[in-house]
Amino acid sequence: MQGNGQFTIGIDTGGTYTDAVVYCRSTEQVIAKAKVPTTHGDLGGCVTEVLNEIFATGVVPSTGVCLVAVSTTLATNALVEGGGRPAGLITIGLDETATKRRGLDHLIPANPILQVAGGHSPHGIELEPLDLSPLNDWLTTHDSGLEAYAIVGSFSVRNPEHEFTTARSITEATGKSVTLSHELSGQLDAPKRAVTALLNARLVPLIHRLVAAVEISMTYLELTCPLMFMRGDGSLVSSDFVKARPIETILSGPAASATGAAALNSVREGVVVDIGGTTTDVAAISDGFPESAPSGANIGGHETMVNAVRVHTEGIGGDSHVQPSPLGDQPVLIGPRRVTPLVTACSERPEVQAMLEDQLGRSVARESDGIYLWLLEQDHDWIPQSSAEATILEALQESPVGGRYEDVITSGLQRNALNRLIASGIVGAAAFTPTDAAHVLELDDRYGAEPAHFGSNLLARQLDRFGKPLADSGLLFADLVLKLLSARISETILIAAADHDGLTIGHLKSALNAQTQLETRLEKRRILDITAEINETLTAVGAPAALYQSQLGQNLGTDCTVPEHSEVANAYGAATGVIRLVKQTTVSAPRRGLFRVHVREPSNYYDLQLAQEFAEADAAAVLTEKMEEAGAAKFVVSHDWQINEARVEERQLFVEAILKSVAVGSPA
Hints:
Elements: E1 7-13, E2 17-24, E3 29-37, H1 43-56, E4 65-72, H2 74-80, E5 87-92, H3 104-107, E6 113-116, H4 135-142, E7 148-153, H5 161-174, E8 177-180, H6 181-184, H7 190-220, E9 227-230, E10 236-238, H8 239-244, H9 252-264, E11 269-275, E12 280-286, E13 289-290, E14 298-299, E15 302-303, E16 311-314, E17 320-324, E18 332-338, E19 340-341, H10 342-348, H11 350-360, E20 372-375, H12 387-397, E21 403-404, H13 405-408, H14 412-423, E22 427-431, H15 434-440, H16 450-460, H17 474-500, H18 505-519, E23 537-541, H19 545-556, E24 560-561, H20 569-575, E25 579-588, E26 595-598, E27 603-605, H21 608-630, E28 632-648, E29 651-667
Parallel strand pairs: 1-4, 4-9, 5-6, 5-7, 7-8, 11-23, 19-22, 23-24
Antiparallel strand pairs: 1-2, 2-3, 9-10, 11-12, 12-13, 12-16, 14-15, 17-18, 20-21, 20-22, 25-26, 25-29, 26-27, 28-29
Helix pairs in contact: 1-7, 2-7, 9-20, 10-11, 11-16, 12-14, 15-16, 15-17, 16-17, 17-19
C-alpha cells in the first residue's frame, strides 16, 4: 500500500505492553498492529521497537505517516501504585485545617509543605499581602530532595496573582518545574486543588521522560510528522503542549481505551472495561462517547480536579502481585503492586527458576517464597531516603542479577522501604501473578508454564488464618486467583454502573455484602434473592480480556463482548482521536449591579451582557492560542452559559454566571 500521508500511528505505552496500530483515515481501518513489552527504564527503546515492528510489515513507509499519537497509562499506574517523584507544596493563605482535607494530609509526610501568608477573597480581592520571606530558607532545606513544586492559593481561581508571583520566585531559585493549581481547574475547593497540583508535580518528571523518549525514537526512525499525546479527557494535544502541562496525561490510557473500545464495538450506550497488566479501568459510554467526571478524576484513592473521562480505576490486572493474606478476610491479596510474572522473569533470569525449585524443595513454607528482587540499572544513582533503603540498595548492588527476597529483606522497616523503591521504579520484583495463573490453567501459552506451576504450588501450601493451606494443589490455587480477580473486576464494573446511575457506592456494597452472605449460607432453599447485573452492552478490551470474558458475563448477568483489535484498543483510541480543549470562566457579583469577570486580570462591568461578551471574547482568544499550541489545524469554539440566581423578597438576584467554552478540531 503506497503511503500518501493518510496514515496515523497510535501508540500506547502501558504499564505492561507498548502497543501500536496503523490507522488509515480514508478507509477507517486498522492496517497493521504490533505489541512489545514495555521497558520502563528505556521507554524510547520500546517505542522504537514497536515502531520497527510496524514498519517491518511493509504496509506503510515512514513518509506516509501524517501523525504519531501516544496514550499512556504510566501516570495512572504511578498514582495507583503510590509512585511519582518527590515534590514540594506551597500553600498561600490556607490554614492548617485545610491541609488535612481531601486526603492532602496523606500526601504531606512524603512531600514537604510550606504555608505562607496571602490569598484573595471569592471576588478576587487581596485579603492579605503575599509574604514569601520564609521561602528561601525552606528551599535551602528541601530543594536537594525535590524534583518539582506545586502552588495553591486561596481563591486563586478568582485571582491568580499570588500563585504567579510565587512561581517566579521558585523558578528563579531552582529552575525546576512548578505546577499552579488555578491552571488545572477553575473550581474553588483549595484543598482539592492542592491535591491535584501536588500529584501533578510528582508526575512531571515521569511524563517529561516519556515525551523525550518518544521524540528521540521518532528522530531515530526519521519520522518528521507531528507528535501528539492523548489527554485524560480523550482528546489529543501536541508534544509541546504536554511539555508545558504534563498533568494533561493523567488517565490518558484509560481515556484512550474507553474511546477505542466504544469505537471498536460500535457502542452507543453501555460499559467498557480495559483489563491491563497493572490496572483495570471501567467507563460508562453515553451517545457513543465516554462520560466525563463532573468534578474531576478519582485515581488511586485521590480526588483530583483533572478534566478527564469518568473512569473507575482499580489496581488489579494480569501482572498484579498475588500474595497470601493470613490475617485478612480474604485468604489472598491481588495487587495493587505490579510485578514481573514468574513466567516472564524466568525466561530472562535463570536465577529466579533456581530459587523456585529450591524453595519448593523445603518442607516448610515461608511468607517470602516466590519473590525475587533486582536493582534496575538506570536508577543506580538514586539517593536513599532512609537507612532501610540504603541497606536494600547496598544488598542488591552486590549482585548484578539481584537476589531472593528472603536474603535482602530482614525487617518490617525494610519491607516498607522496599515498597517505596518498587513504586518509584528503583527496584524490580518478580512474583506470582494472574498471568502465571493463566499459564497454570493452560489459558495462556505465551511462555513456558513450568515457573508458573512452581509459584502456584509454593503459594498453595501457604496457610490461611485458620492454619489451613490456601489450596489443595497449585492448579486449584491458580483457579482461585482467576476467580478472585474476575470478582474484583466485576465489582469495579458494578461500582462504575452505580456511579453512572447516581447510586452511592455504600449502598451498592451493602447489597453485594448481603449477596455474599446469602450465597455462603448452608440452607438449600432461600426466600430472598439479591442480584446486581448490567443491563447495557459490556465490552472488554486489553490483552487478557478474553481470559475473563465468560466469567465476567456470568458474574454480571450479561453478554460480554471482546471485539477485534481489543488487545490494542488504547492505541486505536489514540490513532482516531481529535483535539478538544475546555475553558471555564466565572462572572461574580461583588455587589448589586457590578459584574466581575474572573480572568488573569479580573475585569469589572456594570452591564451583564457586556461582561458576558468580554468573557466569551477572552475565552475564545485563550482557546485559539491553546488550540494552535495543541496542534489543531481547524477548530470551532462554542460557548454555553449557566446563570445562577437566588430569589430574595420576591426578586431574582444574580449570584454568578459560569461560562463553559469548548474548542474542537482535527490535528494539523
